[in-house]
Amino acid sequence: MHPFSLVICAAAWHNKKYMETVSKQQILHDFTSWWRDEFAVAHKANTIKLSHLSQFTINPFLWSYLAYYLRGNSNARSLAEALILPRALGTSVNTIFGTRFQQFVVHYFQDAYGSTTPGVDIEFEDKIDHRKKYCQLKAGPNVVNNDDIKTVVDHFDALRRLARTNHVDVRDSDCIFGLLYGKPEEKSGVIKTIERSYPVYIGQEFWHHFTGDDTFYIDLIQAIGEIANEFDLSEIVEETIVKLAQDIREKYPEITE
């Protein structure tokens, strides 16, 4: 289950049309402010933490190999870079994005809210068919794995059984698996398996159903592109590498430059 799924009693559904009361430009402004003040700050803090070896579980078979693969040597700096770069530019930032972006969605789009239904992350009114949707939400296609198939399908099946018992009109098409970014051709075999049972909205399609605006997804991406030059943290990355390299030298004194 996604970390923001909450297993508590059901809450009342409300129907406020956020996109009708707040301009797209205001939402995009809020989005860039959130990126600058929350997402980027968290990314920076997580990068700084990587200055100590205690932050890593080292694979001794791969460590030197990756240092040579990256820099052609296995000195302390190359070993530090082999540890830091995948985390700072890969796993760490993707984790931050996935969790914090969902918080942004729930907070700023007030006709969507964190779901109280087991296995459902958000509930919202679909702006295309105007039906209430129960959505399991993931960041993108690369974070979906085999374990998600049973989890997603079983939770949606349980939701529909309960709806039938309580005489609530919940259709197969009302239970959706949403991906915040990606393209239809990037759907993995796992995603296609989920799609055999319930709809999958990926990238532009998700945002179109979510906001009613078929260009909103592209506008979000462009908004970040316009402020990307504010986030030159190369000095922070360099300082973190230098500190980690020193930690490596102290713990592995046999390593020489």
Q: How would you describe the overall organization of this protein?
A:
- This protein has 257 residues and is α/β, with parallel strands linked by helices.
- It has one domain (23-251): type ii restriction endonuclease, domain 2 (3-Layer(aba) Sandwich), CATH 3.40.1560.10.
- Helices cover 53% and strands 9% of the residues.
- The protein is built from nine helices and five strands.
- The chain has helices at residues 18-21, 24-48, 63-71, 76-108, 146-165, 189-195, 204-211, 216-227, 234-251, and strands at 112-114, 122-125, 132-138, 175-179, 200-202.
- A five-stranded mixed β-sheet has the order 1-2-3-4-5, sandwiched between helices.
- Strand 2 (122-125) and strand 3 form a beta hairpin.
- Helix 2 (24-48) packs antiparallel against helix 4 (76-108) and helix 2 (24-48) crosses helix 8.
- The longest helix has 33 residues, at 76-108.
- It is elongated and about 70 Å long.
- The termini are far apart.
- Mean pLDDT is 87; it is low at 1-21.
